[in-house]
Amino acid sequence: MPFTIIRGDLAAFRADALVNAANSRLQRGGGVCGALFEAAGPRRMQEACDAIAYCAPGQAVATPAFDLPARYVIHAVGPIYRDGRQGEEDILRAAYTNSLKLAQALKLSSIAFPLISSGVYSYPREEALRVAKDSIRSFLDSQEEELDVTLVLFHKDDLRIDEQVRSEIRRLIAQAADEDTDRLSSRLEYMRGRHAQLDRSPPSPRPSRAGIFKKKRPREKQAPFSREQAEALKAMPMSTEAAQASQLQLEELIARVDEGFSATLLRLIDLKGMTDVATYKRANLDRKHFSKIRSNPAYTPSKQTALALAIALKLDREETQSLLAKAGYALSPAQTGDIIVGYFIDRGIFDIDEINAALFEFDQQLLGSGRLHQGG
Is the peptide bond before 301 cis (omega within 30 degrees of 0)? Predict the structure, then answer.
């Protein structure tokens, strides 16, 4: 953990292992394969591949990374797409899963993938992305060991969200911009009217200095009840049980007011019947980061972390606002990223990868430990 999707150049990405979208004969090809061979040192990489000679579709093998910013290159062979009914999806899933298993066997802590089979092997990009996300997430959720996985997309169009979702989000963003413009216009009109009123008003006479230092009579405080009413209230009997309940409610209220983000989060995890592991995995956080939040009552997370945890716990908008407030944040109706997250919360969609895909498309900061990189 975590799983991140970025846009950039895989050959320039730093990880323990970079995955090559290889062919079965392990020969230098075009696209990602050609770029990795070139950056590694094509002669030495080809010699290492020739020593292995063959890798079946769905399988993965490893070679040294040579001049690449990694320790290993894992060569994974994806399927050639024909019509989607020849077992292509199963082979593609196996290519990701076997690469991840190999990374674990090599005791690596990070691995970066391209979008396997989406180039010359003609796998439809939208389907290739779905299979990649599902395969990687399924593997990570089943493992206890930490593995930082990145999917490096060369083209931003590789991560396209549903057209209806895109259109609705664009409408909400435009609506928020219009409302913001209307609020600004109303404020400007008010200020113009106020200035015009002040310009027409006669100047106020200067106050006399006499009596400035005169001691003011204190204003009499008014009791909320008359004396008779207060005495009657005091005389009313209260049972021991009611007194204890009242005191407990007061103590709980005071505790909740003083409760920090960490304490609130842990209480919500219990209320939702979740475990710590399930929570930080759904939030796309690593164990170390979550431990910081759990062990430090004064810890203040980033807004992206707080939102990721709200998504992991499937909080509605009101609950999300309450959790964010504990860290000093709020869902803003005028910020693009908040509009996008709010769109998914309001529709009960709590898949952090789907939300991050939408944030990625609109160039917004991703949730959890996700990174948004616009490298070339």
Answer: no
Pairwise CA distance, residues 246 & 248, whole Å: 5
Per DSSP bridges, beta strands 3-7 and 148-153 are: parallel
Sign of CA dihedral 199, 203, 209, 214: negative
Round the average pLDDT of the chain to a whole number and report it.
Answer: 85
Count the residues in the chain. Answer: 376
SS3 112: strand
Question: Is there a contact between 368 and 279 (Cβ–Cβ < 8 Å)?
Answer: no
Count of CB atoms situated within 10 Å of the CB of 208: 7
Domains of the chain with bracketed CATH: 3-158 (3.40.220.10), 162-180+256-370 (no CATH)
What per-residue string of b and e applies to 50-72 under the rule 16 or more CB within 10 Å gives b?
eeeeebebbbbbbbebbebebeb
CA 262 to chain centre: 18
At 253-275, the pLDDT tens digits run 444 556 899 999 999 999 999 99
The contacts of residue 327 (CB under 8 Å, 6+ apart) are 261, 300, 301, 303, 306
pLDDT of 180 strictly over 70: no
Q: How many CA atoms lie within 13 A of 219 on its CB side?
A: 3
